[in-house]
Here is the input.
Amino acid sequence: MSMTTADLLPCAEPVRFLDEHGQLTDPGPEATARGYAMPSDEDLLAVWRQMVIGRRFDTQATALTKQGRLAVYPSSRGQDACQVAPVLELQEQDWFFPTYRDSMALVSRGLDPIEVLTLLRGSWHCGYDPVQTHTAPQCTPLATQAVHAAGAGHGLARRGTDGVALCFIGDGATSEGDFHEGLNFAAVFNAPTVFFVQNNKFAISVPLAKQTKAPSLAYKGIGYGIRSEQVDGNDPAAVLAVTRAAYAHARAGHGPVLIEAHTYRLEAHTNADDATRYRQADEVTQWSERDPIARLRTYLTVTGALTAEIEEQVAAEAEEYAACVRERMNEEPVVAPLSLFDHVYAQQTPQLREQAQLVAAELEEVQG
Here is the structure.
């Protein structure tokens, strides 16, 4: 399918179905023309439930850093809709390429939370099996996963599947060369890859205004011939609708899609960061009032899909989930120090062998 410039352009304003108060709003003629449809109450209830559980997991993981059970944890509180809605729409054959901030997305995908936290605990390279889960390791280097996701999407197409590759990207990563290389490769080879940019307004302490003069990060896809869109990232209904359309576009063989979700990181960059040094408290307060969980809760309560009984059940489920994570994380992990040298290269280099021998000798001395 050949696309015109108009087909590539994102909507002039971020797509939105629910306003900041949870009231249904007109998404506008551009969004309607692109076929974005308001999801059903049933689907939105599933998103709301997982956001509640995901946020409780996120809060628990943050607490584990203070208890010394995690070395570091990058919270995604406030970005809950972006973390949950796109992942719930993935199918079994699809691949997911997360960043270091996407632990909530990983547990929403159904991965074992302890395996998800293994990397951040510092006890293994990647706690889960990427091949079995169709989920790449959490990526700490900025934007390198964009190239991997483009290649995976190309591979899925070459194998004749209708699978897609979902790549999560932060706004800071759009300033990296790998991001642009990934977009260009995906476009040239018509790879079914969806690049989902969570624009939370800061690359650690660098504000968006210091990164780009583009009217929207979504416009970065146009130069590569990629259909692009921007969405209110704190509106779960809009995020679900836009990602659904993007997956359908990619599965139909029409190529990659770039989505920019406008959202906000309510917590610090990580537990090692002092966010008060580069942003004001009133800014955080303003974004707290746009909470995606509260927004969707209001809407579903009005429609009658969310009752007090369901809310109580989900809250209890979330607490049980957090308690299980807490209990399992309080168990001392069984570690094998020499495994640090496994899976670094297909064949160990002389330097790695030397380092492994030094560690082995030190362990023997300690144990002896």
Remarks:
- The mean pLDDT is 95.
- The radius of gyration is 21 Å.
- The first strand starts at residue 95 and ends at 97.
- The beta strands are 95-97, 165-170, 193-199, 202-203, 206-207, 227-232, 257-262.
